Amino acid sequence: MSILRTNPPALHSTPGYHHLTITEPARFAFLAGQCPLDADGVTVEGGLLAQVDQVVANTLTALEAAGASPADVVRTVIYVATTSADELSAVWDRLNASALAEAFTTASTLTGVTVLGYPGQLVELDVTAALGTAPAR
User: Fold this and answer.
1) 2-132 fold
2) Residue 108, class by beta-carbon neighbours within 10 Å (0-12 exposed, 13-18 middle, 19+ buried)?
3) What are phi and psi of 71, to 5 degrees?
4) What is the pLDDT of residues 77-130, one digit of tens each?
């Protein structure tokens, strides 16, 4: 399997992610939105950045269960319950300083939203990873 990450020259420069990710041939793992919930299903305390840290930990666990790593991620969408560009930037910076950082060099979207699904939830991460070619049958 190959993963090509590229920025077409006619598009604007990016702060680390790529506009386009192409894989061939591959199977994919589509992770459910990873939320800042601990193993007991409780939203972690400590504010936005603590929630980002929990989302990172949960995402790494899910990727490992799929037999994938951050290098295998081909698409991310980051949802943050905020209208603040500074908070969006803080989330992006925290993710890119984490053990999951390599996942954000691929096609990525960061967006502010009004509300997320759990009480007190401030961040959620949607991830797609390429797993390689399908096993022989």
Assistant:
1) 60s Ribosomal Protein L30; Chain: A; (3.30.1330)
2) buried
3) -65, -20
4) 999 999 999 999 999 999 999 999 999 999 999 999 999 999 999 999 999 999
**Gap between the Cα atoms of 38 and 110, Å rounded:** 23
Arithmetic mean of pLDDT, 11-32: 87
Closest CA to 76 of 47, 45, 98: 98
> What DSSP letter does each residue of 11-72 carry, written as one string?
SPP-SS--SEEEEES-EEEEPPPB-SB-TTSPBPSS-HHHHHHHHHHHHHHHHHHTT--GGG
Rounded-to-integer distance, Cα 10 and Cα 137, Å: 43
Map out the domains of the chain as residue ranges: 2-132
What pTM, to 2 d.p., does this model score?
0.86
Closest by CA to 55, choosing from 105, 95, 8, 112, is: 95
- By CB atoms closer than 10 A (0-12, 13-18, 19+), residue 62 is middle
